[in-house]
Amino acid sequence: MDETSPDPESRQQREARIATEPFNVINGRPGWFAGTTASYGFLWSYRELLMRLVKREVKVRYKDSSLGLLWSLFRPLIQLAIYYFAIGQVLGAARGTPDFGIFVFIGLTFWTLFSEIVAGGTTSIVSNAGLVKKVNIPREVFPLAATGSAIVNFVIQLVVLLGGIFLLSHFRVSWELLYAPIAFLTIVAFGVGLGLLTSALNVYLRDVQHFVEIYLLIFFWLSPVVYPYTFVHNALQGNWLEQLYLANPVTIAIVAAQKALWAAGSEDVGGVVQAWPDELELRLLIMLAIGLLFVWISQRVFARLQGNFAQEL
Predict the structure, then answer these.
(1) pTM of this prediction?
(2) How is the chain split into domains, by residue range?
């Protein structure tokens, strides 16, 4: 008998011993309420790993690049130039939109944050299949790492935006500046919730990532990024379609950010007065609360689906 062949008796004994071992629940209990604290505690214990993954995401994006993080500025600046010329000058949107460049850059900055969180989160589990199959860690760290990378890019673009406002426009000091951080939290909440949900579904159905691309393309134009909400209000005149338009949380967040940072939009410039949704602050707070609830629901769905990730990958 070959000396390297396994001993049948020892293998049988090992299998019998394994069969007597009790099943241990990992990654917390899957229950909707009982498992929440356990899942969040397990995730918190891996916070250092999460930070390392965020750093890895940022480094990989600009690997072997001489300019590094500066590339995160070029895409929105090119988009700004295209939209400013094509929509602002050729189509004439700038004539009814004061400080059109600042207005567009605000929308692009917040929309890019949302789209990067969702797109990066959707493919995060599949992209890290090797770690998912070999290591017992909270799988939520992968879509959250994509969120962290998106926030890093957002901060860089925000610095440019604030510099542009300081040089080309002005800040309107009022309590409405508080809209901006709440809008940021709303964008992150819905982005994280959607990223968690789609990352889990994408493991079982890879078409999800392609659907997300289409979703982001459609909802870019359904959000007031390159056109002001005033155009929508004047066209729909407050009917049910306008209320449906305002049911989009990203729309409310972007409008709130514009209300906070786009000083010319809150002033009578050349006889043009911009329209804003009624009770914007209440709408924004409601959307933030719904976003936080959405994060919890998405995480619990993620916890239910993650049990077969290794097998599916």
Answers:
(1) 0.85
(2) 33-312
